[in-house]
Amino acid sequence: MPFGIIHPSIFCAAVLLLNLAPGPDTAYIVGRSVSQGRRAGIFSALGVSLGCCVHTLFCALGLTALLAASANAFTVVRFGGAIYLAWLGWRMIRRARPMETTTAHQAPPAVTQPLRGLVAFGFVTNVLNPKVILFFLSFFPQFVATNSTQKPAAFFVLGLVFVGMSTVHNSSVAWLAGSITQRLRRAPRAKVWLERSVGAAFIALGIRLVMGRWGPQA
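Request: output the structure for the sequence above.
Response:
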């Protein structure tokens, strides 16, 4: 393999498993798809992918290892991500309102968000996700030969593979969640409870980030 990359099939399998495991990124994408539709979910997925590009660059430059080695810096990221997720969840719960006056010929107004804002929120959600930081730090070096003279290029290529696979998965999740939500438009109360459930999941994820063992020694 070029740049000293080894066991690419195992790497792809690990990336697939990470994507399938529920986490802040998936919760954010599902939340946006539920509250604003498939288009919003897909743009949120693009924001998450941009965040992965930052992790890729950091990994190639060795900054990820420095961050994980610093307990104080890692704690700041962990608590920042937790607060951010809890804030998103609280906003979603507050915005979920039953539309008592909606008639059979009127669809409840959707909560809109500029596309640029959706991408930005997805970006921040991913950058502040400790699970992604630890994944890049723990797994990427295992798939680069120790005698490789082009380690930064190898990390960059692995990162591109990660971003590509994650984008496909997250966009599929956004499309599916948005499609399910469309079917709930005739049942506004069901959609409200779905939005509240997703918002509560955001808050639960934030608590998990604070209480869980996400530090460098985990």
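The chain has one domain: 7-211.
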